[in-house]
Specification:
mainly beta; ten-stranded antiparallel β-sheet; Lipocalin; 52% strand; 141 residues
């Protein structure tokens, strides 16, 4: 009898806590920064960035990508995919306030957006085979 009472009390506690958590207000995510900013030096975007990489047409799963940009325009990226890790490196060039790279496998164009203290790199690119990609990356540590 004591064990049943204990199980009943435990069940009510779990139910109460889950109800409390389920009713907690959820704050919506703010919209991404919308003001395009011209990039004049690599130092202004140097650092680590991360976000979701999406293929067009969509694949079953999106990939998580991290991008590290150095002060001289060199970059390294790592994409964690369901089938393994895809990584590469190269050098960015500054063209009309945007960053661009082209390799034997494809190209990418990087645009900086800001809204107050919030920053975002919007990346659009494609492989030589024609698969298009896009990503919205936020600064990370």
């Amino acid at each position: 009898m004591k064990e049943r009472l204990r199980a009943l009390c435990y069940g009510m506690l779990v139910w109460g806590v889950s109800g409390f958590i389920g009713c907690a207000p959820v704050e919506p995510l703010p919209p991404p920064p919308s003001t395009q900013v011209s990039v004049s030096t690599f130092k202004s975007v140097a650092g680590k960035w991360a976000g979701i990489l999406k293929a067009i047409p969509p694949l079953k799963h999106n990939d998580w990508v991290t991008l590290a940009i150095s002060d001289d325009g060199g970059y390294d990226f790592v994409s964690v995919r369901t089938i393994g890790i895809f990584h590469g490196k190269g050098t960015l060039t500054l063209i009309d306030g945007k960053l661009r790279t082209e390799t034997e496998r494809g190209w990418a164009l990087v645009t900086l957006y800001e809204d107050g203290a919030r920053r975002m790199l919007k990346i659009e690119g494609a492989t030589k085979e024609g698969t298009q990609y896009s990503a919205d990356l936020a600064p990370t540590k």
